[in-house]
Design a protein that fits this description.
alpha+beta, Immunoglobulin-like, 2 domains, five-stranded mixed sheet, four-stranded antiparallel sheet, 3 helices, 9 strands, VAP, MSP_dom, coiled coil, membrane
């Protein structure tokens, strides 16, 4: 702001024009010209980037003891300017007093004619776009109040991985082991009985006829079957207790 007198009394606000940059959208700011004087004043607004901004109105008259609001519209930007964080755009508001019947003409803002014309300069400040809201509210771990009282659901741990199923009661595991032992002992007893019968049949082989030979072959077959079953059960038990 240059000079004194009029410039010290006609107020131009804000001191800077701030725009929060959003691509593809027009941005709006307002310049307020407050005239507390007893006479009318004329104003005119200029900018260093006329293709970038639209000013409504760009010039006019502020009546005595009145305020005029001027809209500054930044055109929609397709991409971020390379220097938007250090914008060099500026606005200048020229203010000059008018006589009671005077109107605006080509010499109203001529510095050579208007010795009492004052100038206010405003700097443009570009602000970064607002950060998008977080899709997941942040909260301190273990703070139930900050999380709205929610706690991990059953079947999930703090890391989000599925929790391991609870271990089976010890009594159930012991019962299964006892049943398997009993079954193994029963098969062993059957094997021993069959082996005894096979031995007896072998000793009596000389006196036994064709029927005896048939019975002996049947016993041998049964022993082999029982032996296979026994091996399978033992293998099953070894694998079960190993896991």
């Amino acid at each position: 702001m240059n000079g004194g007198g009029l410039a010290d009394r006609v107020e131009v606000q804000p001191p800077d024009l701030r725009f929060r940059l959003v691509l593809g959208k027009q941005l709006l700011a307002t310049i307020s010209i407050n005239n507390p004087l007893d006479n009318r004043v004329a104003f005119k607004i200029k900018t260093t980037a006329p293709k970038k901004y639209v000013v409504r109105p760009s010039s006019g008259i502020a009546e005595a003891h009145s305020q005029v609001n001027v809209q500054v519209i930044m055109q929609a930007q397709k991409e971020y300017p390379p220097d938007f964080q250090n914008c060099r755009d500026k606005f200048m508001i020229q203010v000059t007093p008018l006589e009671s019947e005077e109107t605006l003409d080509k010499d109203t803002f001529n510095k050579e004619v208007r010795r009492d014309m004052q100038e206010h300069r405003l700097r443009v400040i570009m602000e970064s776009p607002a950060a998008p809201p977080s899709p997941v509210p942040e909260a301190n771990e273990g703070d139930a109040e900050a999380e709205g009282g929610f706690k991990p659901a059953a079947g999930e741990n703090q890391g989000g991985m599925a929790a391991a199923p609870p271990a089976a009661p010890a009594a159930t595991g012991a019962s299964q082991q006892e049943a398997l032992k009993l079954q193994l002992e029963r098969v062993k007893r059957e094997r021993e009985d069959l082996r005894k019968k096979l031995d007896e049949a072998t000793l009596q082989g000389g006196a036994v006829g064709s029927k005896g030979k048939t019975d002996s072959a049947a016993l041998k077959s049964r022993v082999r079957v029982v032996h296979i079953i026994l091996v399978a059960i033992i293998a099953f038990l070894i694998g079960h207790f190993t896991h």
